Records
---
Amino acid sequence: MTESASRPPLEALITEGRGGILLFGITPPKVSTSPADRDRIAGVTLQRLAPLDLDGLILYDIDDESDRVADDRPFPYLSTIDPAQYYAEHLGDWSKPVIVYRSVGKYDTHQLSDWLAGADPQRELGVFVGASSKDKRVRTTLREAHRLRSRHRPELTLGAVMITERHAGRGDEHLRMLAKQDAGCAFFVSQVVYDVDGTKSVLSDYIYACRERGLTPRPVIFTLAVCGSLKTLSFLQWLGIQVPGWLRNELTYADDPLPVSFQHCLHGAEDLAAFCRRLGIPYGFNVESVAIRRAEIEAAVELAGQLRPLLR
Amino acid sequence: MTESASRPPLEALITEGRGGILLFGITPPKVSTSPADRDRIAGVTLQRLAPLDLDGLILYDIDDESDRVADDRPFPYLSTIDPAQYYAEHLGDWSKPVIVYRSVGKYDTHQLSDWLAGADPQRELGVFVGASSKDKRVRTTLREAHRLRSRHRPELTLGAVMITERHAGRGDEHLRMLAKQDAGCAFFVSQVVYDVDGTKSVLSDYIYACRERGLTPRPVIFTLAVCGSLKTLSFLQWLGIQVPGWLRNELTYADDPLPVSFQHCLHGAEDLAAFCRRLGIPYGFNVESVAIRRAEIEAAVELAGQLRPLLR
């Protein structure tokens, strides 16, 4: 608690390029959830997270990505409450900032402008997410969304996503990061990292490109998620997350994959922390649970607790 | 020395599936080398290796692989002395076994049969290497070579190569290993390992396939090579060795890549040793220098010395 009090607020940790950031990512409840249950869920969540020394929450904006892959989605797609609405109506007890995700293609420019105008830059930050596939019809492109924010709400601290798996294929994720940085993004949040080696390659290409161009590297926040079942494993893979073959085997053959993935997440975080420190990249961690099983959520909270020491 | 004396000979370490094997890989001098220089080179080499607690030497059989890639070969291809001939004529002072590589496609079946007939199974082991590309014209196929050895010289302990990079593309390297094991191979020697994660995936697929089929895993010997210059780096890549992007950057931007690659080799070896121990795969290391620069050769010897403790 005292430690938390001595740290600058999230927005300053980001804009000053300090890093040392610990976040927890939350998916709002389904729209079918009753108002009473929404409050109850929010209360349980905040109670679970209270012992953690977090700098903020991430509130996801879930988009139907079934256009992206032909395979059946292991967990069904269900519309979830708008993250800003969930924050406004049910997270009043949360005293720290939130990072509101925006799958910008879901909204027209008026809706996005309205949200930008209403957001409180002292308590809210944003992350714009582009289309999940090239062919997806979007109402607003990522480029347009960046322009809207620069024009109407430049004081809102904005972040962007970093996707290791895109780099493995095309080798240009660091250039996308630079372009987003140029468009005003002050930090990056990774997709769930299971491919630590590939993530190091994105970071490496990014820092050398920054040095070449005389740019200051922006904080990179690594998202980690434990995997407690084969269904969660197939969901991670459905999401496009590259799980190294040997780890996929270990999770598949384990009596209980949860402790195996927990250790992998922790070791990966140590590896990434040491790597970022060596290269001078400010960094942080974001923990989420992609499944709603109680054991996986509790392990995610436990993981976040064990990550804080890596941020000093 | 006492430690070495208490270890069974190489052939027993392999056939009994014990592992704990340390080798050093040597490319014989070019055929243009004078007999006096051949002796001098052999003497210098053995003197350099004398302080190491090796279980044996690997003698490579260099093949012109220019069919495999269109890029210019960073170090020119020059015919080298036949490894068995180099052993017979110049390595008389070497008291431990040697593993003679055979790029089988270079030889007709009579030549291979002659070598098999003349090899001393107490002092010599073999590794058969297949064609470097699908389209290469060969005089003997790997399958034919395996058949020759089974028929004429089954008492000669035979090994096979393991190539991580093939697994990354096709995901079937563990099946090739099983097929080679079925054809009589008692151990595997990897191509130079820079992609540790990918190598762990081959090993993982291999051990789970062994368990499924009720087979005993055979020793896997990991080849490590330091990289002391950008020319060596491009040669490694020309050889088809996958160097992770972040490491390629570090080697490229380092004032001196040699200590960077040395540390990577050592950490990779520790990682692989822990992984093999956990999965119950007998293992060993083979160190080679792909360049002939003195600093790189000395670093290779130093590396081999530091690997012995990982084999206990």
---
Amino acid sequence: MSLALRTALAYHESWKAGDLDRAMTYIAGDIVCDAPAGRLTGAGAYRDFLTPYLRMLKSVTLLAAFGDDEKALIMYDSATTLVASAPGAECVTVRDGTIVYSRFLFDRAPFIAARAAQ
Amino acid sequence: MSLALRTALAYHESWKAGDLDRAMTYIAGDIVCDAPAGRLTGAGAYRDFLTPYLRMLKSVTLLAAFGDDEKALIMYDSATTLVASAPGAECVTVRDGTIVYSRFLFDRAPFIAARAAQ
């Protein structure tokens, strides 16, 4: 398995298991993440981005995961208390065992709709 | 390059070039596509799904593409007349040179907001 994919999967398995502290050990302190709502800079901002999602997470199914020496691309589906099916895709750049850049993709529409209905 | 990735990239390059007819030659007649708004069944429904997006497409940048013998996963960013940055990810299953299943992910929120503002 490629180095980047090994890191991406270790990170994925950690947050899937609800272990945010362990997941963050795979995130570089100066990570840059381009998420649907805009750019996040730094591990603190990234942790704040993941936290509310993990609070409502029920289960995760990995759909595909590939990588080479520096990049990995994964797609998964997830079930949350707010949205029944919330797939995500992450394209990460890995350096020295941590994710230094992430392009993070999910559909915000069902979350916006569910929050408006609450 | 893996067989599935070759097909996924040929399809991607075709629609990127605006050639929907050529792109559709890589789509199975009975394709099933799980898109953000729900399941699409059949090449006709898939073509109707792509058509309005391609009409507003200005440019596409491939971010990552990987695959094995039967699955490929790609992520790209795109610029459209409606939404400046509209990334997408497609996880496709390929059989006999055509895409028989696709999990298609993009963020609908900026499209909904832009249409509401029009």
---
Amino acid sequence: MGVMTPNPTGEQPKQPIPGVTHLIAVGSGKGGVGKTTVAVNLAVALAGLGHKVGLLDADIYGPNVPLMMGISDMPEVHEERIKPLEQFGVRLMSMGFLNPGDRPVIWRGPMLHNVIQQFIRNVEWGELDYLIIDLPPGTGDVQLSLIQTTPLTGAIVVTTPSDVSLEDARKAVHMFRQVRVEVLGIIENMSYLVCPHCGQRVDVFSTGGGKRTAEEMEVYFLGELPLDPEVRAGGDSGRPIAIQVGKGDAYVQLAKDTIARVAQVGDPKGPIMKIED
Amino acid sequence: MGVMTPNPTGEQPKQPIPGVTHLIAVGSGKGGVGKTTVAVNLAVALAGLGHKVGLLDADIYGPNVPLMMGISDMPEVHEERIKPLEQFGVRLMSMGFLNPGDRPVIWRGPMLHNVIQQFIRNVEWGELDYLIIDLPPGTGDVQLSLIQTTPLTGAIVVTTPSDVSLEDARKAVHMFRQVRVEVLGIIENMSYLVCPHCGQRVDVFSTGGGKRTAEEMEVYFLGELPLDPEVRAGGDSGRPIAIQVGKGDAYVQLAKDTIARVAQVGDPKGPIMKIED
């Protein structure tokens, strides 16, 4: 940290966040694919493995992290810096803490950009091994501004196996590549349901498309996560499946795979590799 | 049409769209709840009942209507006006026709607003009984600009029964009320899955929350739609379930209920009722 890496692409160097080693964005082309569920459970699983972890809910309009993490206090402010909340060993910041209840936040783009930058840079994250950023769904200008100005180690793209979701996931991969953010991998969420009555597998949203898309786009495939009513219930009740004894194995595996991918990708602060123009 | 209604709220009157009788927005607080699936099948079902129907895909970043309707041609332009495509008796416009493939559209808010206005006002919709507008998911500034400047008859809010989705659906209802757009009703999509192996019901995303939320918010409840792999497959294959013989009953019922609600709500062009400040 402190030493700027050379910047052959001519872009503005991205200021590192003091104390934060790796920033990982979790994105999706389409909403409702379980992006926040993945971000929350990945953060909790990384903390469970002994790492110092923060989770920034950057979905200003639909911040679901407070509900899923079961916490909704107002953060304290000391000398113009916001103190993150902490739950299940993860430091948290979300618009949902500042605007609880049902009223929508109706802000224009530039204001949104400012508040996310404040969440990244004016929050007392302290020493973190991993800061997970739960992006708003989609590939719009808010997402683009955020990933352009943040020294991301890499990004994870969440999709379901449905063609409609995959169509949007490919857009998300292209968005990250356009601004030279390494895609750590694609996760296929809601891959299949195991019927709780008969135990048979139901391919609710089709099957196999995540792996196929990852191969086609030459992106690492981080695996399948089943459509499990218990995962949804864990989110709705504020007790993420990853903290529940004997139920979080898939997320522990995902956390380990993510750590391995981060090690492959290396130093987060320079332009890592030029994939395309 | 033509005569402006009195405007006691001091807002700009909304210019009607020549030839279009009713504009209905389909929105959701959260993505991935089946908003586009509902919009597509509602449009097709209304056309099947003999009405003249248009469908505008206002989701610029993730336009899934072309895939779901099985059409992706480039629309013709005559004298600076765009001719909509037509499929299954529905006139269609989507950013996906102009930007096919996987590249994301990366535009800022004002540009987005312009393109949606062009889609509403510079497309040769012709005579339509119903123009269905598939909004982008969420409650951001693009959605707000659109519903503030469009003479909507009303809006339909799609949710799943999960608490996370309902949390965002309430925000969407508030958004419509803030700008005095009548909420025609809430639809609970993905209500339950009937296991194709054993025939038993699985409450994948919980159950009953749509009806409960509609009651709490004093919004009409437009009913439950099951999580049916055939509906998803219909969308992925470009053959909406509502055109498939013997399978579209739920959407025919939804179309009839929507028509009834539109009749209750009455004239679309004036400020309809003041629900709250």
---
Amino acid sequence: MEKYKVKFMPDNREIEVERGTSLLKAASQAGIYIKSSCGGKGTCGACKVILISGEAKSDRTGNLSPEQLSKGVRLGCHTFVEGDLTVEVPQESRLQAHQVLLENGGASLLRETSKDLLDLYGLHPLARKVNIRCSEPSLTDNASDWARLSMELKRVLSDDKPINISLSVLQSLPENLRKANWDLSVTLTDIDSEYTVIRVEPANERPAYGLAIDIGTTTVVVYLVNLDNGEIVDKQGSYNKQAHFGDDVISRIVYAVDSPENLDEMQKAVVETINNLIDDILKRQNLRAQDLASAVVAGNTTMTQLFLGIDPRYIRLEPYIPTVNSTPSVAAKEVGLNMLPDALIHSYPSVASYVGGDIVSGALATDMANSEEIILFIDIGTNGEIVMGNRDWLVSCACSAGPCFEGGGILFGMRAMPGAIERVDINPETLDVKLKVVGNIPPVGICGSGLVDCLAKLRKAGIIDRAGSFHLEHPSASARLRATADDKEFVLAWAHQAGGDKDVVITENDVKNLIRAKGAIYAGIRSLLQAVSLDISMVDRIIIGGGFGNYLDIHDSVQIGLLPDLPPEKFEFIGNSSVKGARIALLSQKAWSEAQELARKMTYIELSIGTTFMDEFVSALFLPHTDLSQFPSVENSF
Amino acid sequence: MEKYKVKFMPDNREIEVERGTSLLKAASQAGIYIKSSCGGKGTCGACKVILISGEAKSDRTGNLSPEQLSKGVRLGCHTFVEGDLTVEVPQESRLQAHQVLLENGGASLLRETSKDLLDLYGLHPLARKVNIRCSEPSLTDNASDWARLSMELKRVLSDDKPINISLSVLQSLPENLRKANWDLSVTLTDIDSEYTVIRVEPANERPAYGLAIDIGTTTVVVYLVNLDNGEIVDKQGSYNKQAHFGDDVISRIVYAVDSPENLDEMQKAVVETINNLIDDILKRQNLRAQDLASAVVAGNTTMTQLFLGIDPRYIRLEPYIPTVNSTPSVAAKEVGLNMLPDALIHSYPSVASYVGGDIVSGALATDMANSEEIILFIDIGTNGEIVMGNRDWLVSCACSAGPCFEGGGILFGMRAMPGAIERVDINPETLDVKLKVVGNIPPVGICGSGLVDCLAKLRKAGIIDRAGSFHLEHPSASARLRATADDKEFVLAWAHQAGGDKDVVITENDVKNLIRAKGAIYAGIRSLLQAVSLDISMVDRIIIGGGFGNYLDIHDSVQIGLLPDLPPEKFEFIGNSSVKGARIALLSQKAWSEAQELARKMTYIELSIGTTFMDEFVSALFLPHTDLSQFPSVENSF
């Protein structure tokens, strides 16, 4: 096979690839991650690159204009290497890694729900470290090394669970015992049925650490947790590198099942994402991979299966069957996580193909399964999942809201990170705009909470009608409101304000996408209420988790019909409930076994059966809703 | 690093190695296995090679004669590549693989002790295959694939043990279920506490198979067993490729602990030995590696630790501590065996550093732990281990007999295979010799049973005295009895009879080695008797297992003082008891748990404590013994 050199600019990074390799793939091999919302189908146009020199062949140009094409702009996914090349990857085509903001704004995260829960469950982590001292062997006391060690462990642990040892620890046990002069720190996994020794080192007072990991479709978050006292020592988040293969779970599945290599590539992408986060945290804390003794992972069903390399094909085909809900615990070395090789990785159980471990984890973090009150838990991530119930019953559903609120499918959409518009004020007379931007820097794009706010304000200012259509003939005659070749848009920030060469805008297409997303979530809530014949007024509390969690404005959300019209005091935020639940399970065997129970107990309502959801969805495609009686508090002024 | 080509003749196999590589190592890399009894120390002279052309440097020549040196003969272990080379590896320097004879001579093996034992324990193998039919999923019956499969398995297996599934089977489960149209054959490991699914395939009537494996220091034997009915389907044995690193466990340990790479090399050598045997058997039986669902391995403590890659260093250093006696079960993929990747490999537990799993396995095969009679079980392999007792008590010891009876340390020593002298008759007048050779072909060497016979006949003919010294002034003046430069020897077969260019002889050095070996075993028996204050007459039965098992002549053995002077009807042979015990455990969970109990129950007597063994050993360095009253039946004619 012929090989050619491809140089990526402005990185000035050069690699060699086989003739016919797509530029998307080549960039990935060079460690440059390009957005690919549609998963390489050539439809989304997110993977634009610019040919500087050399030969490449494109078999699809999507919606690129002749002008763009003449400037060398190509779709990375459908342009293939035919000779030595130099390619520019513009900033907007890149996945921004290591930049995810972790709940450092909202006050509510300080409530630390999970702290209270830990008091409730008690500290009994899934791995632990104990210090012991063994007697030295002699001709008359010639028990084997392992017999000696395990007898002393049995004494110190003083319970009846069998104690095992991993082969790799056993292989080097003799030297490690003697180097430590029989004075030892022993790290063990501690699960329901057994202990397993996974590390033996000279006695020391350093704690064992664990990881709580939230694998979101868009974002991955890792907490480093001290297993001795339960404290969160550090945290870090970044984009999920799988985004390179598509924005949503469906495009990921389509890509993954194309060949066994693709599934493997997808598995490695998320593992690499997590390992990069681990490496950063370890460096910062001056720790080593061997200090990481356990992990609990929470992700939706597709993310969990992809993380474990399990064929996800039937998740997307009717009747939507996951391979497994109760995933087996696996060793770190089996999946490639940079931890103690025999550390156990526990994945939160799923309920169904579209109500995954992240929701079970979140539900655990809300403690709703022990509540007398009826709780409605809404997790707005790339999908939108809803759980309702109390200690007697739990129902759940998924409503395919799409990734809008995480910035996906929105022209200037982005995650809540520095540069993201999080609040929008529009003067209804002049259409002048005031923005609040994360980090108080020039705006780059707009995040979920900003989008909700923007939608409410666009409506309030009369820029859009109840169906989301733009009214270009607005009396203000502001230059901000304008038509483009194929859309209408409103300028939130002029290019010179944004510090770039483009105006930051919201388009009619964005607005329609947002209405579909909010409509899906509201329809999901309504469908769940109908499934159990409850009125919304009977719900005692609404807990909101997920990507934009703490930043969301309740008033705005009700105005646009995303959330039901209930008194503000019934709402609360829990932030990233998925990683919170993962931490609790990591620290408490009782919580972990309750999580299994919770997953079994949660009744899944499949919204695609019957017409309820579709009827509700269509009714919800207005601002706030077709049936205004459901939103009595919404101002009727417009 | 400079690299050079080394060509091996007459194989005409060429490889490239780094400058300074020993010819021993280079040959191994070329797949040519050279004997190295001393483990590469340059003392045994077994690894002779002949330089044909090119440059090599020797830093040691051992006992090579100037004449040999001038002919290009070198020690492979201490000759290093300095340029392109051509090297001849003579036949006598090669390990002969795949030629080990499996008990196809003795009638006693037809007794099939293990068959009776299986009746006793009942068939309940450590892995099994079941056929099930699952219902297809639908929108209203949307349990996960694994939930569907495990529920049906639970119904069919109808017991309460948890059912797990290996990650690798889970990864491809969805396609496998649907390709089979939900009509399935499921292979499971079935151990004490749980089932684990290790294979899912379309329904069929083929059985699952298991392997019973005896890892001897010298020889490795594999039985293929049908797990449905317990039948031995095929068997094969070969030399242990570790022999390349030394004949006995001590030289193996010395080599293995020199560096982590060496330990790894040693582990791979035995795995490669087993895999070659597996491949031959699979080919012959038209099976695939995936059909192999379980294995039970029996080996001495060092062999077991090396097989699992466990540092064996402290086995050879006082106080002789093994790393582990109860070795954990491991997956085939963890050690590299060519089976179902998640098939469990169970290793027989050891008692101490020098009473290993092979002895526990053998003791199980004798059923002595359930016997009312007192049984003395002697396993004569590369070491010599002894177990004595009945259902109430068991004691054991190891007596470092060395590998003589397997052909090691004997000039023309060899295993019982075609060409091995197994019976010797010497006319006391003329010293004419009559031989019985395995396979009725010209003699190549002499095996264990032949050596015992030879020793008795040499003594009877007055060729050697009670201490084993040669009497060159024998009245017959036969040319067979002669002195060489540094030894004395007796010709068993002339070169022209042997079809080679060398006379087949037994030397005084061989005889002394044999006396030490038989003395060690007899001293071990005596020490064990003293440890429990029993007289030999109180032993009801003596069971002999191990390498030369069935071929041994009881009369000869008593004549030379290898076995105690008891009536012949008290003796019986069990053959390779180690592989027999492995098969029973493979087929019966009850037997396998009894094996663990047996290992715990067996009291180990360390012969190096106190002077009993040494005193007994010194007394036993005569034919038959210093104390003739212990051998009343031995003819006093000489």
